[in-house]
Fold this sequence. Notes:
CATH superfamily of the largest domain: P-loop containing nucleotide triphosphate hydrolases
Oligomer: single chain
Radius of gyration: 27 Å
CATH architecture of the largest domain: 3-Layer(aba) Sandwich
Mean pLDDT: 86
CATH class of the largest domain: Alpha Beta
Shape: globular
Order of helices and strands: HHHHHHHHHEHEHHEEHEHEHEHEHEEE
Number of domains: 2
Strand content: 5-15%
Structural class: alpha/beta
Distance between the termini: 84 Å
Amino acid sequence: MSERQQMPHSYNSEKGLLTNILLDTEKLYSIDLQPQEFYNEKHQCLFAEIQKHSNEYPNWDTVTLYEHLDKNAKLIDVGGVTYYMELQDGIASSLNTSHYAKVIREQSQLRDEIRTYREALEKGFSGVSVSDGVISKLMGKPIEVKHSIDNIVNTWRDAQKGNRTCIPTPYEAIDRQTGGIKQGMVTIFTGRSKSGKSMFLSHWYNYLGQKNIPIMVVPLEDKYDVTIKRMAGNLGSFNVSELDAGGRYQMNRSNFNKYEYYATQDKEIDDAQEILKTVSKYPVHFYDRKVTPSQLRGVAIRYKKRYDIQAMFIDGAKDLLRPSGKYGDVGFDEEISQQLCAIAEELNIAVVSVHHLTKISEFDRINVNHIRGSGNIVGDARAVYALQSMGIETLLADKGYSPKYDDNGNLTTRIFECLVNNHGGVGMKALDADLNRCQFYESQKQ
Length: 446
């Protein structure tokens, strides 16, 4: 028998898993496997093509996958049309999906171990030591796990020196008060409609990008184009809306009662283009297609493996796709919350989820009870931050700040505030905002 035939594998588990995925595409996002973990070459190829196709078309089905395989000349590689149809002749089962994935991984790991042992034997016969350390290195995993307090003490040493051990906000003072945004946990970010939440996030993305911290951004409300333009506007301090409109109205210098329209200049567009190029090079990775919570979990796993993301920002968690025929409002909120917590814990990344508010008086300062779906979402989150934009004049005055207003009498001062924190203190930072240019400046006390 050949080496490949001797290797442990489960043809039926591989076939069963692929059948389950083809009959219920949602099941793809409940597992974490790589194509190379399959033993059968046609199964390897089909699973790889499913992953590619689902990345491009989250709402894919067997018809669109067939077209993808045909277009890319992969039908023969996956066993041909007959085998592709045979895989769809079965009954999908969530229980079997998890079992099949477990068996496939175990068999793959056994094959890896066999290869490791064979390599170790070859090294031994050639006179090279095959101690536990060598075998452990070949296997890529420790033979035994030892817990140590050294990592904890090292983080304390780093904090003592001013080095942050978290995902930072743009404001160091708040991070010192709160401990920053923790990895492995979900943090909620909220604010009133039109308060500048998404613009503030763009400001935050730039800050992390400049620090070379890889993140994943899921802008469900505003999509990639709007978000990256805001990032450029923030970095270059220019008015994106004027560029989008092709120009601006300005007061006539000789007649103050008359406004004239001035078209955008080529230099303004050229300068903005250079800024766009700069922000596009940051390690900020976008995914702006609407997906279900479980699909988002699968996408996050891939981005973690591909880019080693340290945080994921979801701008508009309410806009995640509701699985067909499932959940009332409360049940869907719970599903979102559970999946976000699983993403944070499994990948050890910070998840910052933007949530909207219930009806709130214009005189009220935001608290956690104003967050839509707060029963499930706030209970599962470890911290809640808000961009306060109304009902804060008294607080600003008490803190020694002078509120600022625009020409129409609208408050332009904001407060970036940590409302709840289960792993540290709370804090706030007063900011003067110029939303036309996506700018947030630290307010100066009187």
